[in-house]
Every structure is written in C-alpha cells, then in structure tokens.
Amino acid sequence: MTTRRNPAKPGPAASAPLRKSASSRTQTRTAPSNPPVVKAPARKAAPARRKAAAPRARPTVDLALQGGGSHGAFTWGVLDRLLDDDGLDFMGISGTSAGALNGAVMLTGYVQGHAEGGETQARRQAQQALRDFWQDVSRHGPIFSPLTIQNGLLRPEFNFDQFPAYQWLNMFTRAFSPYEFNPLNLNPLRDVLQRHVKVEALHQGCKRCDVHLFITATSVRTGQARVFTDQALSLDALLASACLPFVFQAVEIDGEPYWDGGYTGNPALFPLIYNTQAMDILLIKINALARPDTPTRSMDIIDRLSEITFNTSLIGEMRAIAFVSRLLKEQKLDPGRYKDLRLHMVADDDGLAPFNASSKFNTDWTFLQQLHALGRQAADGWLAAHRADVGQRSSLKIEETFLGMQTSV
C-alpha cells in the first residue's frame, strides 16, 4: 500500500484497510528473489512454469453510514454487497444512529470471523452478523413500534401514516416526554445490541484489524458532536447515537447526557479525514435531500424539518471539502497539510421515495428485505460504474448533489 500524506490534524495511529493481515500483504507485494537453480548433471531442466496472476487487490475506502431508523436496512444491503469478494476494503467506518449500529454489528462479525479463519471467513461472518441483527430487530418489531405489522400486510408502501393511530402516537410523543411515559427508561434496543455487538471485538477491530469505528452522538448540554472511538466504544455510545429525544431518555455517559448523533453529524466525516490515511470516502446515503412537494399536515411538516436538520451538518462538511479541494487545485493550499479527498456515494432516491418518514419505524421483515434488496442492487450498480474510480478520482459531484450548484464540464 502506498504511503499517503498525514492528515491535516494529528490523530490516532494510521490504520490499514479491512483486508489481509500486514504480513500477508507484504509477502504479496514484494516477491522474494529467486535463488540460483542447481541442475542435476544427467537431467534436462524442466521448462519454467507460467506464474499464476496475482489476485487483484480490492480498492480501499472509508465508509460513512447515515442513520434513518429501519431504512438502515438499505445500508445493510449495501454493506452486504461491498463485503463480497469483489467488493471493497474498509479502513475507517463513521456511523450515526442506524449507521452506527450497522457499523458496530459488521465490525463485530468481521473481527470474530478473522480470528477464526482469516479474511474470507471474516467477510462472510460480517455478512451473516448483519442479517442476524436485522432479523432480530424484525422479530421484536412490535416492541420498537406497536404499529408494526408482520408479513408485509402494508405493501406496497409500508408507511404508517395511513393509520389514524400513527397520528395519535405522534401527538402523544409531542405532549408527553419519555421521562413521563417511560419513567423506568426501558430501551428494547439495548437487549438486541447485547446479543449482536461485542464491545471487546470493537476494541480489537481498532487494535488488531486496524479498522477504526467512529460513533457520533450529540451532547445535550453543549449541542456539539462527540465522537466515540477505540476504547471509548460501548453499548451506551451506540444507544446515545440512536437516541431520539421524543422516544428515549437521554443516554448518560460519564455524567453527560447525549441525544441522537444525527443532529450534529449524519454521519460525521471529520473523524475519517483526521484519523485515517484513506483518501476515498464512500457515503451510503438514505436520507432524502430534496422533496418535490410542500408538506401541509403538521406531522409531515415536522418530518421534513427533521430531514433538513439531520442533513445540515453533512451539507456543511461537504461544502468545506469542496472548498478545500478547489483551493488545492488552484495551488492556494499546501497539499502536504490538506487532503484532496475523493468522494463517492451509494444511494437510491427513487427506490426509497415511496417510503416516507413514518416507515422508518416499520420493522416488518418483508419491508426490511425489500430495503436490503434495494441497497444491494444500488451497491452492485455503483461497483460496476465506479469501482475503478476508487484511488483515482471522485465519482460524486458535491456541488450538484449537496450544494445545489451546477458544474460545467
């Protein structure tokens, strides 16, 4: 692997991609010199055999995983495809809310599989870990949302807002806080995470497998993002990252209360910029940036406001990345201090368009499987079109996608 420049700010030790161990990579990269061949006097030397072509290395990226409730099953589908043998390697993973859960579950399976059977086993076990997690979420769907109806009875839209009960629940959670309707602070997600996330595996992922996981939560007191990584990773950090303030009580860590990380980073890109050597970031986007219609119902207005709020921090970081990239191209910044990042994105706005904000609480297995299929299909299409761009150029036009600007070719 070619050594790249250090990031703009010092961070933890540079990490290697989620792929083969360092020793095996070194052996593959540097072929040993051939010793002199001593021929037997009475035998003719056998013709030299053609060496088998070395397998092509997978491109390496950092992953940025958005949150979005059960729409995180779309991200599951994307990760499932990227973990195939012709997919990608990962150096860092930044996730928020459902994205954080996907990242933690995947890394848990990867680390356990790597210890048992190496790289190939690690990737297969990571895929299985994600499937098991989402199946568990579906099995306990009525606990997360009493409106969940199993066996796909809400097809083809899977939206809850068609039920009067959903509107009533919306009003209920606006009138009463979780401190009032859930004084015991029960959170069914904790039990699910305990079954599928091994904190020690997350710590080993950072140390032994050289894969750094970054989890973002929002400080209630300061309104700033806090990023948990390495030894600070915990189940509480994951719960904090997925803590919707109208649904759950704030999660306290070291005496500080935290809410959903989507308010300050959905997902946060700066931990990847400062703390890994990767120059390529792949964003898996599940939240709509634009909507064609103006919402008129109060709950639709609230849902749209939430979407805008959860996208604001990401748009801000994209604007900063585009600005730095332009200054680097104009030779107005020192390339030794600033990264000229290559950005990529997997998304399917058209495929997700029929599912409004109310469907983010739907954990019906048929719905989750459909989202998984959409994600896997989107990733397959992206790999076919842009896998070769990794390490070479950006395949995402930031100005057009995030800044509402048209770029001329």
General description of the model:
By secondary structure, this protein is α/β, with parallel strands linked by helices. The protein is built from 14 helices and eight strands. The chain has helices spanning 22-29, 72-82, 98-139, 141-144, 164-175, 178-181, 188-196, 199-207, 235-241, 270-275, 298-329, 349-352, 365-386, 398-402, and strands at 60-65, 89-95, 212-219, 225-229, 251-253, 256-260, 280-284, 342-346. Strands 1, 2, 3, 4, 5, 6, 7 and 8 form an eight-stranded mixed β-sheet that branches. A hairpin with a 5-residue loop joins strand 3 and strand 4. The chain is globular and about 55 Å long.
Q: For the CA atoms, what is the radius of gyration?
A: 23 Å
Uncertain spans: 1-55
SSE string, helices as H and strands as E: HEHEHHHHHHEEHEEHEHEHHH
Helix content: 40-55%
Total of helices: 14
Largest sheet descriptor? 8 strands, mixed
Class by helix and strand content? alpha/beta
Shape: globular
Q: What's the end-to-end separation, in Å?
A: 32 Å
